[in-house]
Amino acid sequence: GHDNRAATAEEQAILDGVKGDVEAKLAKNFNHFRAISYVTQVVAGTNYIFKVKADEDYIHVKVAKPLPHTGQPPFLMHVDTGNHTHESPITPI
After folding, report:
1. Contact call for residues 29 and 38 (beta carbons, < 8 A)
2. CB 3.0–4.6 Å: which of 30, 59, 62, 89 could bond 77 by disulfide?
3. pLDDT at position 70, please?
4. Which 3 state secondary structure label does DSSP give 44?
5. Predicted pLDDT of residue 2
6. Helix/strand/coil for 68
7. Tens of pLDDT along 63-75?
8. pLDDT band with cut points at 50, 70 and 90 for residue 44
C-alpha cells in the first residue's frame, strides 16, 4: 500500500544501513539522518521509500529489502533530492 507510516527504530536501522551509499551518491556527509515516515511496495521482498531529514533538508530514499531467505541485506535503489518538505507526500520513485 502507499499509506504513509511513521518510521520506527526498525525502519531507521534499514535506513542507517544505506546512509553511506546515500552520502556517496550525493557527495555529502550528514550529521543528522533520520527516517521521518515511509511507504512500502511489496515486490520480491519489500521496497521502502523513506522521507528522511538529512541535516536541514528533506530527501526521499528508496531502499530494497530482499526476502529473508536470500540472506541479502537491504540496498539503496534511489535518492530523490527534489523540493521535499516535512509535509510533502511520499510518491513512488
Report:
1. no
2. 62
3. 93
4. coil
5. 59
6. helix
7. 999 999 999 999 9
8. confident
* CB-based contacts of 70, cutoff 8 Å, min separation 6: 45
CA atoms within 13 A on the CB side of 34: 9
According to DSSP, residue 56 is labeled T
CA distances from 64 to 1, 24, 39, 77, 78 (A): 15, 18, 12, 6, 9
Give the burial class of 87: count Cβ atoms within 10 A of its Cβ; 0-12 exposed, 13-18 middle, 19 or more buried: exposed
Order of all β-strands in the sheet with 5-6: 5-6, 33-43, 45-54, 57-65, 75-84
Report CA Rg, the chain: 12
DSSP 8-state assignment for residue 75: E
The pLDDT of 76-84, averaged and rounded, is: 93
As a residue count, the chain comes to 93
